[in-house]
Structures are given as structure tokens and as C-alpha cells.
Design brief:
The chain has about 190 residues and is of the alpha/beta class. It has a single domain, classed as P-loop containing nucleotide triphosphate hydrolases (Rossmann fold). About 55% of the residues lie in helices and about 10% in strands. The protein is built from nine helices and five strands. Strands 2-3-1-4-5 form a five-stranded parallel beta sheet, sandwiched between helices. α2 packs across α3. It is globular, with a radius of gyration of 16 Å. The chain starts with a strand and ends with a helix. The chain binds adenosine monophosphate. Adenosine monophosphate binds next to α2 and α3. Adenosine monophosphate (AMP) binds next to α2 and α3.
Length: about 190
């Protein structure tokens, strides 16, 4: 069983690479962004709590995010392996994830950081907006999401680096080349 965190700014290609990794390895995909979007779309109690935060492009508080993540883990006791996408985004989330994995005698084996410059991220998101008009992709919200990544989320990387679990992959290039680099890390 291999558990993987896919890390990178909005627009780094996490979604595209996740699809390919799931097809190859059979991971259970946990995207906290997708889960939050599901809750807001279905107007659940949780969705009501996070809607405004999400629309502003800010991070949802750890307490809410970690509780939702735990619930999702508990729904999948038979998983061959998990692929975490968009989680963890804070050190508190990373620590909670390690705790949950340990409770199941498991671990996060690899953290793959897709390295993409801010300019490239902005160009890609501008293109994506033309096809998939996500509400939070509007200009100011987008700026907020990108700065949340570069100001807050990026601080999770040293946590994994110190423990030798971090692998950086150049996220600029052909989709398949990037995919092969990730597969090599997984082994
Ligand atoms: P994403 O699609 O991963 O960029 O997530 C969309 C939005 O959901 C983010 O801008 C945050 O508001 C919220 N979100 C998703 N994952 C997390 C997380 N791990 N921690 C806090 N907020 C999150």
C-alpha cells in the first residue's frame, strides 16, 4: 500500500496527474477542494459553513478541513492506497494526516511537489477559465488562492523535506513526461 500526497499551486496540473495516477495504481482519490465543492453544490450544513470562505479564495479552517478528511478516510477502510490532492495545506493538517495514517498502521510514503512558476500558473488558469468557469477563478479570488499557496501552503514542504519524504518534479512540460517522473518516485 502506497499513500501519496500531490502538492502544487492551483493550476499546477494536480487534477490531470491525479487522473492518470488513479488509472495506473488504483488509488482512492481524496481532493478536499472537490469535497468542499460537492458540499457547497448540495447545500449541506458543511457546504453552508464553507461557501463564503471558498468563494473568497481563502483556506477553510483546519478544524473543519481535518474533520472532513478524517470522515473520508473512515469511509475507505479497504483502500489500496490514497492519493491526497489539495491536502495538507498547513502543517497542522500534515501532522493530523500523519496521525490518522499511523492509527491505521500506515504512513504517507511520498510527497510529490509539482514545481510550477507563478507566471505559468496564471497563464494556465486563464486558459482553464475559458472552458470551466469555476466561481472561485474570478480574478481577485484567483489572486487570493495563489497567494494562499505561496504564503501559507508552501510552508508544509519543509515539514516533509526534513523527514526525507519530499520529491520535487518539474511541472512544466509534457503531461506524459511529468507523469513518468511521478511514477519513478512511486517505484
Ligand atoms: P482546490 O480546488 O484544491 O484549489 O480547493 C478549492 C478551495 O477549497 C480552496 O481555495 C479552499 O478554500 C478550500 N480548500 C481545499 N482544500 C483545502 C485545505 N486542505 N485546507 C483549507 N482549505 C481548503
Amino acid at each position: 500500500m502506497v499513500n501519496l500526497v500531490l502538492f502544487g499551486p492551483p493550476g499546477a496540473g494536480k487534477g490531470t496527474q491525479s487522473e492518470k495516477l488513479i488509472a495506473k495504481y488504483g488509488f482512492v482519490h481524496i481532493s478536499t477542494g472537490d469535497l468542499f465543492r460537492w458540499h457547497t453544490k448540495n447545500d449541506t450544513a458543511l457546504g453552508k459553513r464553507v461557501k463564503e470562505i471558498m468563494n473568497s479564495g481563502e483556506l477553510v479552517p483546519d478544524e473543519i478541513t481535518i474533520a472532513m478528511l478524517k470522515e473520508e478516510l473512515d469511509k475507505n477502510p479497504q483502500a489500496k492506497g490514497f492519493l491526497f490532492d489539495g491536502f495538507p495545506r498547513t502543517v497542522a493538517q500534515a501532522e493530523a494526516l500523519d496521525r490518522f495514517m499511523q492509527e491505521n498502521n500506515s504512513a504517507i510514503h511520498h510527497v510529490v511537489a509539482l514545481e510550477v512558476t507563478e507566471a505559468e500558473v496564471r497563464a494556465r488558469i486563464a486558459k482553464r477559465k475559458l472552458i470551466d468557469n469555476r466561481a472561485d477563478d474570478e480574478e481577485d479570488k484567483l489572486n487570493k488562492r495563489i497567494s494562499e499557496y505561496f504564503n501559507k501552503t508552501i510552508h508544509v514542504l519543509p515539514y516533509y523535506k526534513q523527514q526525507g519524504r519530499l520529491s520535487a518534479v518539474n511541472g512544466i512540460g509534457e503531461i506524459d513526461t511529468i507523469f513518468q517522473s511521478i511514477c519513478k518516485i512511486i517505484g
